[in-house]
Structures are given as structure tokens and as C-alpha cells.
Amino acid sequence: MNHISLPDQAGHFDAFGGRYVPEALIAALNQLEAEFDRASLEPAFWQELDELRRNYSGRPTPLTEVPKFAQHCGRARIFLKREDLNHTGSHKINNVLGQALLTRRMGKTRVIAETGAGQHGVATATAAALLGMECRVYMGRVDTDRQALNVARMQLLGAEVVAVESGSQTLKDAMNEAMRDWVASVDNTHYLIGTVGGPHPFPKMVREFQRVISTEIKAQVRERFDRLPDAVAACVGGGSNAIGTFADFIDEPEVALYGFEAGGDGVETGRHAASIQGGSIGVLHGMRTYILQDADGQTMESHSISAGLDYPGVGPEHAWLAATGRAHYEAVTDTEAMAAFQLLCRTEGIMPAIESAHALAGVIRLGQRLAVEQPHAEPLIVACLSGRGDKDVDTAITYFGLPGHPDLYTGGVA
Amino acid sequence: MTLSSSAAFSAASAEGRGALVGYLPVGYPSVAGSLDALRALCGVGGDGPGVDLVEIGLPYSDPIMDGPVIQQAGTKALERGVHTSDVFAAVEAVRETGTPAVVMTYWNLVDRYGADAFARDLANAGGSGLITPDLIPDEAEDWLAASENHELDRIFLVSPSSTDERIRSTVAACRGWVYATSVMGVTGTRTSSPSAAPELVARIRELAPGTPVGVGLGVSTGDQAADVVGYADAVIVGSAFIKPLLAAEKAGRPDDFSGLRAVLADLTAGVRRRP
């Protein structure tokens, strides 16, 4: 496996990836690719980014052992990579700071972004404020309703939030609207894609900006244990925190890679957002990858309690990692995720994003399975805690039927 | 042997004018009703000429190049049960009027159907070719082969932001004609400088002499159409034909094509106007 060479020149991860976009965007993608490649070779670029990461975002993020939570995970020792402690509350800032610096280098003055849970939108609005750029964020109407706190944060940071009314009114439709905007505004605008998807060079570039997660995990585990972890795990929507968690371990075959997709009501029910587990190969949003589609190739609506995972596609590198068997992908239901959400809150005093709770539910299952398969092992598993749960409090109040909430005991999920 | 869509351009040229290409989606106002709308676009039931070439849209759930008007009609068509296979019946309906037809759709639908199977069924229905707004020649290996096999036109897009090198290579990959997107933007909107389209056509003429050029995105009136065919071989109109259909549906008369015919009369007169 020669992973370092992927994607190839045309942005392909074997059969996945590529550029399925209007010709009108090719010049901008070429410009971005050239700028990224040039910047990648300049120590000064990485120095500036590193400075922002340390003194603005708050890196390196800690690696927290969670022993009481781990009591539910067989004999595994569980560590959380605390991306929730980044400025703006998630891993999204890692990628945004990098792309914002590239935007400035390209002489563009406006950024647009799409967001599901709002974490990427908040990060983009933050970077735009920091670097003095105009910012517009597209968000599905359904998501603006369930993530009202993050909408307000973006607006306070000076961004314009556009609620998208078309289609399923979630992340996929926000991405369509952002692409339309970009086709019309490409001269002065950078489309700051938040996930490790879209047309080349986005999957490669976002991976490189998120790689810092696994680079730090590797160093932190080595420092404490003088070895590598047995497994790393992360939730997968589009898959940016997962690719960041995997990146430095892909060429370390002794480290198992686990991605946990949003299983919604269960993959078998058809109401889910698990593109790898429950989808098929197709083209969406500029890339060939696993998508949720019907017999004609029309995109099917995804379902997840987590707005951030509610997307009917997945980054092409994940499709490739799944197809080659290098990484393992499993689906986690809403119910399992919310149980893990509550468990981490109660056992460790850490409130995870509901996205991250999918990874936590996955490691509970993984740890218990390993305890059966390898009865004498004490595996060391690192799960990426991609974001904090503040934004999801309303969803959790409704889900758990907490007293005092106006929608108390409605049985539904906001 | 299928009919070449550029024959429509040559026929118009022989009359000393540019060609009018009209777009309507299959499935709107209904699957059956769209066939009647397409016939009306070809001049059936009216007292004037129809378009020279029909571009039949196959609606897609995620149409990133479509403007709000086309997207609205496409979304309704999907809700009303349009499927990929319906596009071949639409092609047959258009061909029966004597007007050539090309299909315009996003790549995943063709990919899912199977590129070669799609080409085969399109050719069997009498279709001339396919316009692929989100498939560039760089990713089109399967389609290059399938369109060769079934002798179909393949119409790729070029844009004002395309480099000279990309204009050359894209035109070389086309069969039939090349689609010049006149403005940087989605269909039905007109935001960039009025000189973008003539400048792009002039570049294509210089870089790939002899290639027929159709200009699309943003034209809605006979005056604009007359202007475009002053420098291009054809003008492509979509949203302007759909607006009266949406209005007719809103008025409770989805089978009323009088508005469509009025726009058609204005545009067909436009491309026949003497400079």
C-alpha cells in the first residue's frame, strides 16, 4: 500500500474521488491546488499556521484517559483526543485556519461555507473575522432550526447565514447552494469546504489540515506508552475528523482504524446516514464515492439525530479505505449514540457533541467485542472527541425529556 | 446512424440565421404533460416555427448548475415520479415532430444507468447526443467510449474562466458542437459583464476554428437571442420557457401552453431578425 502517493495527480483514490464539477469551477480548483501545493512547500506557511494553532486555537489538544467510561468498554483503556477543547469547540478550526490563510494568499476577499451542525460555519465565521474577510454560510433550514445557538454565534461573528429551503433542507442542500454561489462568484470567493469531500483538491487538502490530530495522538501515545495505540476511532459524516485521526496511522498496519457512521434508526430501516454501510458507489458533490441513492441515482435523504453527520455521502478517501479494507466502518444508531452521550457526561463530566457520541458508542461496542475475541488483551484505543456538546443541548433536552423544556415529553427529537 | 445535433445548426445557417435551442425538463408539469410541452416547443399546435434543437432535461436531486426556475420544475418532476427511462420516451416524442433532440443531465444518473446502456437507449430513441454540465472530458472515459460506440454527440461546456489550453482540449473532446456558458453563474441569471459571452465565443473561434458554438445561460427575450446569434451559431434558452409553465400551473391550468408559445414566438422571431 503506497498511501502517500494518493490521491494521484487527478485527485483519484483508485476508483474514488476526482472532479465531477462544472467547467466553470476548474480554473478555481486549479488555482487552489497550485496555491496549496506551493504553500505546502513553504516553511513560513506552516509556521504561521502553527502559530495560530498554538496561540489562537489552543493546540496541542490534550489526550484524556476516561477510566470510568472505559468500564463499559471491556478491558480496553480508552483515551479521548480532545478536539472539543479547540477554540470554537471542534476540530473544524484546524482545517478552516489553513484554508483561510490560502484564501488570503490567493487574494480573495470572501469566503463561503456550508454547515450542518454549525461547527464548521462557526469556525469559518471566526477565521473570516480574524482575517477580515466577508463570509456567507449556507445551512439547511432543518439545521438552522435544530442548531439555533450556532446560527446566532455565526451572526455575532459577522457572517451572513442563509437558510436553504430546497431538497431535504440539510447539509447536502447547503452544499449545493454553496457550489452554486461559487460558480457565480469564483473571481473573489473561496468555497471553504468543511469536510474531506468535494472535488479535488479538497479531500487531499482537508486531510492535510486535519492530519495534526493523528500527528499529536501519535506523539502523545508514544510519550506515555512508548508505543502506538492498538486502534483509533472517530465518527464519520463526510469524515474530516476521522481522516485527521487516521492520517498518520494509515501506513502503520498494526494500528486498527475504525470509523463510525450515523445509523439513524438503523441501517436496515433505510432511515440513516451511513453511506459506506448502507450506500453504493456514485457521484455527488464533485466526487465519486459511496452515496445514498435510489435505483435511478437520485440522492436519497439521510437521517441522523446529529445534524453534523446528516449527509448522504462520505469523503472519497474513506470510500477507498473501506474498499481496500484498511479501515473498518460500522453504523451506530441514534439510540446508541445518545446512550454514549449520557454515559460520558455522567462518568467523566465531559459533554460530547452528538457527532462524537457516535464514536464513543462505537468504542464501547469495539471494546466489548475485543474483550471476547482477545480475552487477555488490554487494548489501547484512542477515540476522537471531535466537538463539544453545548450546541446539542436542546436536542438532548428533548431526547431525554428533561423537566422544564417547553417540548417536554413530546417524544420527538428537535 | 443517429441524427447529428449540429445538423440543426447547419440548417439554420443555410437560412442565414442562428439556431434556437430550447430546454424543457421531462416530467414537468407531469410525465405525460411534459411530452406535450416538448411538442409545443417544437411548434406543434402553434402557428409559427418551433425551436431548431430540443434540449431535454432529465431532473436530478442535486442540480448545482440549474437556476431556481429550472430547479423548481425539476423538483416537481421528481415528486411527480419521473425516472431516467422516461427521458427516452421524451426523445421519441420530440423526434416524431422532426426536431432533433439532445439530453442534458448530471453525470450520476447516466453512470447509474450505465454509460453504454444509456447511450444505446438514447440512440435507439432517436436522440442526437448528451450535454453533461458536471462531467468534464478529464473524467469522461466511459462516456467518450459509449458515445463513440453509439455515434452520439457529446457536448461539453466551456466557460469564461477556461484557459486556452482547456478550451482546445475540451472542444477536441466534443462531438457536434460546444456549449459556451455565457456568464459565470447558474442558469436563468445574468450577472457578469455583457462582453463575457462574445469574448468567449471569439476565443473558441480562434482556438478551435470551425466548431459550432451554442451559447447558454441567461437569455430570455427575442432581442437578447438576436444579439447572441449575431456572434454565435446558436442560442440556448431554458428558464424563459419554463416560467410560463410554472405560471400556468399556478393559475390551475398546467396544460395551458399559450404562455410557452408566446415566448417561443418572440425567440424564434429573434433568431430570424435581420441585423
Automatic annotation (TrEMBL), chain A:
Keywords, sorted A to Z: Amino-acid biosynthesis, Aromatic amino acid biosynthesis, Lyase, Pyridoxal phosphate, Tryptophan biosynthesis
Reaction(s) catalysed (UniProt annotation): (1S,2R)-1-C-(indol-3-yl)glycerol 3-phosphate + L-serine = D-glyceraldehyde 3-phosphate + L-tryptophan + H2O
N6-(pyridoxal phosphate)lysine sites (modified residues): K92
InterPro entries reported in the protein's UniProt record: Trp_synth_b_CS, Trp_synth_beta, Trp_synth_beta/beta-like, TrpB-like_PALP, TrpB-like_PALP_sf
Pathway assigned to this chain's UniProt record: Amino-acid biosynthesis; L-tryptophan biosynthesis; L-tryptophan from chorismate: step 5/5
Tryptophan synthase beta chain-like PALP domain ranges (all copies): 58-373
Cofactor(s) listed: pyridoxal 5'-phosphate
PROSITE patterns in the record: TRP_SYNTHASE_BETA
UniProt xrefs under CDD domains: Trp-synth_B
Gene Ontology MF annotations: tryptophan synthase activity
Domain of life (superkingdom): Bacteria
Record EC number: 4.2.1.20
Function recorded in the entry: The beta subunit is responsible for the synthesis of L-tryptophan from indole and L-serine.
PANTHER family registered for this protein in UniProt: TRYPTOPHAN SYNTHASE, TRYPTOPHAN SYNTHASE-RELATED
Oligomeric and partner information: Tetramer of two alpha and two beta chains.
Protein name listed in UniProt: Tryptophan synthase beta chain
From TrEMBL, chain B:
Pfam families xrefs: Trp_syntA
Domain of life: Bacteria
Active site (catalytic residues): E55, D66
GO molecular function per UniProt: tryptophan synthase activity
Pathway where it operates: Amino-acid biosynthesis; L-tryptophan biosynthesis; L-tryptophan from chorismate: step 5/5
UniProt key word Lyase: yes
InterPro entries per the UniProt record, alphabetical: Aldolase_TIM (IPR013785), RibuloseP-bd_barrel (IPR011060), Trp_synthase_alpha_AS (IPR018204), Trp_synthase_suA (IPR002028)
Keyword list, A-Z: Amino-acid biosynthesis, Aromatic amino acid biosynthesis, Lyase, Tryptophan biosynthesis
EC number: 4.2.1.20
Class of this enzyme: lyase
This protein's record includes keyword Lyase: yes
Catalytic activity: (1S,2R)-1-C-(indol-3-yl)glycerol 3-phosphate + L-serine = D-glyceraldehyde 3-phosphate + L-tryptophan + H2O
SUPFAM superfamilies: Ribulose-phoshate binding barrel
PROSITE patterns according to UniProt: TRP_SYNTHASE_ALPHA (PS00167)
GO cellular component, one term: cytosol
NCBIfam families given in the database record: trpA
Quaternary structure note: Tetramer of two alpha and two beta chains.
HAMAP family: Trp_synth_alpha
Role description: The alpha subunit is responsible for the aldol cleavage of indoleglycerol phosphate to indole and glyceraldehyde 3-phosphate.
Membership in a protein family: Belongs to the TrpA family.
Protein name: Tryptophan synthase alpha chain
